[in-house]
Each structure stands twice: as structure tokens, then as C-alpha cells.
């Protein structure tokens, strides 16, 4: 892993600070703090209006009231007072007996994902996965190795990992891995009272360092996927009734289950193909600050964004757009919460060129792997970015593993919230994923990533081609460049009305009305028309994508015909 970091840094050297992004300095206006008077808030706004530079982020002034009332664990603090003593008998730890744990070894095989030279046919890949992706466990201390034809035998190592040939077996099954170390198997079945399983935490930290090269100190905290990460960050940084700046369309479950219960006042920002429009963001913040001053409420403090393969629109934010947004975050003293769940699934502009290819075949070209555009974390010179990553869209959502990368004070608080809410992510998942990644090594991991990007590129191209065949003249859309969503605007209907929903049911195809993702509460309630639909292609093979888009076109044409007849 250390070698991986060094190799990556040769390719992607540590970035120098951009000339357009200067470190903020102490301005005349003091930074707004929770509970500050209306007069001090007004001074802050006047300073912002003049363009005064803001001070580097002071996190002590940004914690939510809920977080301030949360206390560090008293039992941990007491136990730590004994940490300096040798030969301590630990009668204090409330851990279940490891002698009662059922698993003595853990082994797994991995389905073949990489073809030679291309991806296997979907049916073959599905058959291989169904036959070979099972996880085997041993309960007697004997290693239960999966039968894999000519696959090389795995050789256990003292650390619980293994050494194995990196070539694929003829059966379509990779060699997999076996965990025999008693300590590692026990850890997989025990509480992990920390920021995560140490080897996996180190792996994530190394990837962050290599791929994002943060310019300021950061720390990583593991979470149970990105949903828990977003919830924990909001719990740390927002109070009930606070503003939350976000794209005008954003992930509906976050609106329904995280933002709404916290009674956050969503401040939706107009979007284009690159996400938030900077001029619209600046104008929205100017209006919101005026409202906050007039009402004596807290100024906007947090900006939430999904910058790549945005859910639901599929927008991809370019580097210059990120610089503009970051500059505005400096101007208005906002923390940027960068939820980059689809960061891995960027497959470049090949899909745009595939419009000209026959049969929906994606244009040829190497996938980017980890050679991805800079993130907000890469640009951060003030310590105002909190980044969220997840394995859900790369390895699978069932693992429930994500992580937050942030300035150390935030990582400490997020870890406190995560421990309090769930006692941390699943230990078994963290250990298994860590062992798998260590067994793969950096080269094999990047191959897996490129293969995954190629799968999504192919399905995005299939969706784009199917839309060209079945939706032309009815709707407009942008060819996906990342993620798994296609954002469709109806050109022939002003709204996704009940007649269209009925037609979709009759055609037996489901797409999501864009209204469900609207951050504007009035719009979401149906008071304004919303002609958008979200179609997803990530979990479907090309033939199902084709049929689904065909049925969608059929349903739209039926509603248009009914409307024309009624006229």
C-alpha cells in the first residue's frame, strides 16, 4: 500500500495551491458563531459584501447544539486513566466472549469480472457470479477452501492475509482469500471501538492521500455507508431550522429521512450539466443572508453537494466549476460537504462519442481508474471541506462501509456520533473487505476499478442509444459521463402527471418522477410543474435497458396521443 501511494504520487504530484484560491486571512468582521447577536451577524454580512477575506475555519464555533450537549464516553475516559499501567487485568470491558464466536476461519472466492480482453457476456458473468461468489465459513478450525478448478491454492500468511497467483482461473473464479489468523477472525466478530478497523482505515487514508492529495491535515473515520456519514455530519454541523444549501434536485431519501427531521431549511440552487450554477448560488446566498438578518436567525453555514454522477441528474462538476463554488464558499464562509458516492464511477467522455456508434456500443478507450479529476478536498486551502466516500457503488452496498475525510476536529466528532448511533460499521464487513483489498494489491484493485468503470460506461452508452431510438422527439437528455442515472426532460408534456403514471403502470416500466428529488418544498408538493424523469441503468443489462426505454417511450406517446385526441 505504501508502494501504491508512492507510485500514484509520481503520476499525480501533490498540487500546489491554486493562484485563484488563496488562503483566507483574518478579516475585519469576526466569523459568525452560534448564539451570536444580530449585530455581530450583520457585521459578518457587511464584511462579506465588501469581499473581506474570512478566517480559516474555526470548528469550535460550528458545532450544533445537539453535538455540544453530547459528552465523551465517561467509561472510556475512566478506562483510559489506567492505560499507562502495565499488566492490567481488564475487568471493565463489556465484550462478549470470543470463545463463543461461531467462526474459526473465513474464506471467500471472487467472481471473474475481468475478461480477456473485454468484459464477459452478461449472462456468462451472471452465471459465474451465481456459482462462485458464495462466502464459505469454517467452524471447526479447518480451512474450508472453495473448489475452484485449476485455481492456485491460497497460502496463509502470519497476518491473516495470503499470497496467491493474480491470474484468473479457467472456471471464471478468482482465487479469493482465506482468513485463518485467530486474532483477525475474532476481530471480525467483535466490537471495534475506534474510527474503524485499522488496516482498512489505513487503506482508505492512503487512497485519499494518493488520489486527492489534501493540502491540509485530514483524518478518516469509517461509517456504515454514506447515508450514516451524511446523517452524522449533519448531526454535527446543523441545528433544527438551519439553512442547508444544496442542488435544486438532490437525493430524495436524504430530504425525507435526514434533512426533514432536522427541519433544515433547504436552499436549492439552480443547476446545469455541471451541477450548481455559481451565479445562482451567489444570488441565493445573498437572499438567504438578508432573510436571516431580518429574522435574527443563523446564517447559512453548510453547502451539501453530490459533484459526480449527481443523484438524480447525473451532472458532473468540472474543475473550474469547483473552483468557482469553492471561492463562493470562502466568500460566504460555508463548509462544503462533498458526498462523492459516484466518484469511482467516472468513465470520461467516451459515452458522448458513443452516440455515433452502432448498436449502442461504447466507444473504445481506456478507463480512467484512479486518474480522476480533482475533488473539492484537493482544492481545500482553508479546511472547510468534509468529504464522504463509500464502497456501496464500487464493491456493493451490502458491505455498508463508507468513510468521512475531514479536518481532525470534525473526524473526532463524527466518530463520536457514529459510535453513539451504531457502535461503528460492521466489523465482519470491514475485516473481509480489508483482507480482500490487501490480497488484491494496488494493481489488481485498479484493474477492478477500471473494469467497473467499463461496465457502467457500456450500460450508459446502451441507455443513451436506446433513448435516441425511442425518445427522440419526445424528450431531451444528456449522455451520462459518470454514475448510473439518466436525467430526462419531457419536451412534449409540461409535467409528470397522473395520466403518465397510469401509462407507465400499463406499460410495466418504472422511472422516478423528478419532483420527488426537488429540494423546493412547494415544487415537491405539486404546486409547480416538473417535466423531469430519472432513469437508472446501473443494475440492468443492455437488453433490459433497451426494453425499459422502449416501454417508457410507448407510455409517453400514449399520453401525448390522448391529449391530442382530447383537443
Can you give a write-up of this model?
The chain has 567 residues and is an alpha+beta fold. The protein is 40% helix and 12% strand. The strands form six sheets. Strands 6-14-13-12-11 form a five-stranded mixed sheet, with helices on both faces. Helix 9 links the parallel strand 7 and strand 8.
The tally of helices reads 18
What's the number of extended β-strand segments? 18
Mean pLDDT: 79
| Rg over alpha carbons | 25 Å
Structural class designation: alpha+beta
How is the biggest beta sheet arranged? 5 strands, mixed
Termini Cα gap: 67 Å
| Strand order in space, largest sheet | 6-14-13-12-11
% residues in beta strands = 5-15%
Give the low-pLDDT segments.
Answer: 1-42, 114-173, 351-365
What form results from the Cα inertia axes? Answer: globular
Helix content: 40-55%
Q: Brief description of this entry?
A:
By secondary structure, the chain is an alpha+beta fold.
Keywords:
single chain, 567 residues, alpha+beta, 5-stranded mixed beta sheet, 4-stranded antiparallel beta sheet, 18 helices, 18 strands, 40% helix, 12% strand, globular, disordered N terminus
Protein topology:
Layout: H1 2-11, H2 38-50, H3 65-69, H4 74-80, E1 105-108, H5 122-132, E2 135-138, E3 155-156, E4 162-163, E5 177-179, H6 182-188, H7 198-212, E6 219-223, H8 225-237, E7 243-247, H9 252-259, E8 265-269, E9 271-272, E10 275-276, H10 278-295, E11 302-305, H11 319-332, E12 335-339, H12 350-353, H13 376-379, E13 385-390, E14 402-406, H14 408-422, H15 427-470, E15 475-477, E16 485-490, H16 498-507, E17 512-513, H17 521-524, E18 532-536, H18 542-566
Parallel strand pairs: 7-8, 11-12, 12-13
Antiparallel strand pairs: 1-2, 1-5, 3-4, 6-14, 9-10, 13-14, 15-16, 16-18, 17-18
Helix pairs in contact: 1-7, 6-15, 8-14, 10-11, 15-18, 16-18
